[in-house]
Structure prediction request, 327 residues.
Amino acid sequence: MPRPKAFVTRVIPEAGIERLAGVFDVDVNRDDRQLGAAEIAQRAQGCQALVTLLTDRVDGNLLDLCPDVRIVANVAVGYDNVDVAAATARGVWIANTPGVLTETTADLAWALLMATARRLGEAERCVRAGKYHGWGILMLLGGDVHGKTLGLAGFGRIGQAVAKRARGFEMRVLYTDQQRAPEALERETNATFVDKATLLAESDFLSLHVPLLPQTRHWLGESELRAMKPTAYVINTSRGPVIDEAALAAALRSGWIAGAGLDVFEREPEVQPELLACENAVLLPHIGSASIETRDRMATIAADNCIAFVRGERPPTAVNEPVRARA
Ligand code: DGY
Prediction:
């Protein structure tokens, strides 16, 4: 029996490649350059498995160009880069990497929250620029974190993990989501369900944890930003388009809110010049899940999904049910 083939569109941690290589003949785009659909299709000829990253656009066009592909394993929990309906209709499995990055992403959300409140980016730039000429009582004053109100938009795995961390800071925790969480979970996380208007009005820190869907695009726009406290901070580790960036830049410039910590942008890797000009924004290059251990686990889960598929099993973290096997 010939070994099945897999194409990995960019470099991923070796842990995942080694796992895949136990079962597949693996080709990896070692240049780590983002490939277009035609280039992916060319490299994926004869491949049953395609391992993608969130920078790849996986749509009906790409899948039509890759007729042998039966599973796309996206190395990310978010899969807004994938047209799942197109894959399902073509009999292609789509899998993501949930769970393993929850705590790491929650850690980063907290790091960003604290960096934003206490102006760590500005402070570091001051030292590196040789502008630290001595302690000053009014120098780089920020906002306190402890005892404040943390608002969570989205109360899935990552939102809950962020809520749990707030306990140590003795914060009041509010959340909003499509549905109220079970009471036991609310007790465990010390979180109170509120509507969006209350969340906006009462949060000192608003942290976004919703997936990017048509209904969450620009979830935070001008009217929402104007409804927040002028002392509040916005933290985004979910997806950039959840915020209307032009409105956010206006809010930061005009003082509708005090600051923002962003790990994601509306048009990555482009960052709006208006945001770059805002000293009250801490800007990170989408590193939410970027710990060595977590990235290894993400790559390994992607490999496990591909392996399960060739064994005739359901990929363990599939997000769809293909209507029929691909011919
Ligand atoms: C994801 O997994 O969706 C993150 O954005 C990257 O880890």
In short: The first helix runs from residue 14 to 21.
